Amino acid sequence: MVNERSKALGEARSVIREIFEYGNARKKEIGAEKVFDFSLGNPGVPAPKEVNEEIVRLVGSMPSLALHGYTSAAGAPEVREAVAGYIRTAFGVPMSADGVYMTCGAAASLTITLNALCEEGDEFVVVTPCFPEYTVFIESAGGKAVTAAAGEGFHLDMAALDAAVGVHTKGVIINSPNNPTGAVYTRQELAALAALLEKKSAQRGAPVFLIADEPYRELTYGAEVPYPMAFYRNTIVCYSFSKSLSLAGERIGYIAVSPRCTAAEQVFAAVCGAGRALGFVCAPALFQRVVAKCLGKSGDIGEYRKNRDLLLNTLTRCGFACVPPEGAFYLFVKSPEADAAAFCERAKAHELLLVPSDGFGVKGYVRISYCVERAVIERSVPAFEALAKEYGLI
Ligand code: PLP
């Protein structure tokens, strides 16, 4: 009666959402103050003031029909030009508006890109742990997801990538700063990855594309975030303003196809075609214009840094093992027992809502989203201490 695959996807339980819903119900039961919900990656600092200023300016200065009407399918020309200009200036790559496609956030950027590239038999390599939706997006585009485990400190493991990328590999997805680990890939890593992908492209006689998923680009605590397109020619950047500008609900982002891609015009035509086929044309018009004036900006990262430091110090003091995140707003913590889901259940008894790592493609860790109010972290300290005592860590 209906598409079985879609039905199964719709019915499959999203662990993160389930924990979040449990948290909401529990807050009603015992009071919001007593529940420590670290499940979702919903930005916790307000959008920078430029966002509201620009909304007000646009609403007051542009005729309503022009402001809210359709733009071109790929986005308003002046917005695409602004994005291209920003990429040229900030990262020194010769981007032009012809390679920019405005989208409804990173999820749309990724699904469009994967549908643009994927042909029968194609594989896409993901670095685990990774954003759980990658597999859904890859398989929906008709591809096969192949994993390459991250190495030391959750950075790229070239040997694992070498083994995972083969003749069927159409693309490799990287995400830096990373959800769920907070790792930020260095210049050396990107240079090594570029060399590997050049070698693999030569072996397969066709490009292996680098798909850079970048919703957290601006959210770092001092680490440089090198621009993948500056290292490897066959790069497609999937950007989103959801996290940097705290605009997750407004659904706005872009795809930037490097002009140095092999047959870049054809790749961009395929992006436009995939956008059309998926119904992702004309990203939200008001927010296209807003983000064009806020490129490179972000909410107050200092707040996330304070949250990170407080949580990291608390957990380390309690004896939990965690790698300090260099960016994004997640802490990836080693579960003190092999079964991360069982650990999450025991944490739940202390009203601590954590996400087991299994959905991210690895076992034995939990993800803690610290994009919450600081008071939540402060109030949660005794609960983490009690949990640590239960495991004999302190
Ligand atoms: N990619 C990663 C790594 C993410 O963490 C997220 C959202 O959490 C997305 C993509 C989707 O972002 P958007 O809300 O812009 O669609």
Report what the structure shows.
With 394 residues, the chain is of the alpha/beta class. It has 2 domains: 134 residues, Aspartate Aminotransferase, domain 1; 244 residues, Type I PLP-dependent aspartate aminotransferase-like (Major domain) (Aspartate Aminotransferase, domain 2). The chain contains 14 helices and 12 strands. A 7-stranded mixed β-sheet has the order 2-8-7-6-5-3-4, with helices on both faces. α6 runs parallel beside α7, α6 packs across α10 and α12 runs parallel beside α14. The N and C termini lie far apart (56 Å). The site of pyridoxal-5'-phosphate has 13 residues, from α6.
Number of strands: 12
- The average pLDDT is 97
Class derived from helix and strand content? alpha/beta
CATH architecture of the largest domain, please?
3-Layer(aba) Sandwich
Order of helices and strands: HHEHHHEHEHEHEHEEEHHHEHEEEH
Please give the alpha-carbon distance between the first and last residues: 56 Å
Number of domains: 2
CATH superfamily annotation of the largest domain:
Type I PLP-dependent aspartate aminotransferase-like (Major domain)
The fraction of residues in strands falls at 5-15%
Annotated CATH topology of the largest domain: Aspartate Aminotransferase, domain 2
Indicate the radius of gyration in whole angstroms: 21 Å
Helix percentage range = 40-55%
Briefly characterize the structure.
With 394 residues, the chain is α/β, with parallel strands linked by helices. The chain has helices at residues 4-11, 15-30, 49-61, 64-68, 77-91, 105-117, 133-140, 158-164, 187-204, 264-278, 285-292, 301-317, 340-348, 374-390, and strands spanning 36-37, 100-103, 123-128, 144-149, 169-175, 209-214, 235-240, 253-257, 330-334, 352-353, 355-356, 365-369. It folds into two domains: 4-46 and 300-390, Alpha-Beta Complex (Aspartate Aminotransferase, domain 1); 49-292, Type I PLP-dependent aspartate aminotransferase-like (Major domain) (Aspartate Aminotransferase, domain 2).
